[in-house]
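As a warm-up, study this chain.
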Amino acid sequence: MKTRAKLNGLHTADCINFMQSMPAECVDLTVTSPPYDSLRDYKGYNFNFEAIADGLLRVTAKGGVVVWVVGDRINGGRSLTSFRQGLHFQKIGFNMHDLMIYRKKNTPFMRSNAYTNCHEFMFVLSKGSPKTFNPIKQATVRNGFEMVVHNKGPDGVNRKNLKELKKEKTRTNIWSYAVGLGGTTSDRVAFQHPAVFPEKLAEDHIRSWTNPGDLVFDPMCGSGTTCKMAMLNDREYLGVDISGEYIDIARQRLRKFKNGENYLQNAIEYLRERDTLNMTE
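Now compare it with the structure written out below.
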């Protein structure tokens, strides 16, 4: 833990080199989104997927999880970059624990010859079986005791038994979030980065796959969303980005909550705002 604590914080560095300096198997959860298919301008920095994947395998703890948020170029036909990356993760030793969908509630991009694209994949990769799972629950439409179909015999007759319908159930693996200012985040400075994913997305994965005190990592942390949500949820955080400009943005976002007497009140106000924005799927 002492070794991990020295890593806590934000660092300007090439994540491949940085991960080589990290202790092996020290990270409980990684939540990150790579610059796939060169769809955004990342100041000309290169993206070496294979080396990053190898580094993540080395630093991920046994039972740890990597959430890899990725999509595909769709113009001219889907690139399927996401699938190739998922298969590579399997090849080097990760378990594809789940293939989840991040659905954007309010995507504005219409297509002339295909249905509107409103999703990205969230590969949930584990090193062995996940050691932590805190399922997020949602209310069921019906609950209480009801006569429900139990079995249908060869005669075609539905046979019913009295069963209890629970008041809540585990969410599905399709998660929906509003995007843009107020949905993705209320931090205006974050949008100086070209691709910001929703704070609630990062937070939901952090709550699902870690416990307080665990180390959450983002090797391409950009505007600092993963680190901010780890901090607000009492996890250790480690963010790395090759761009000093992006690290400055991340520091501004975290400083708003981390410093000063208003930290607790800011956190409470943030959590209330977050729950209001995401009350519906």
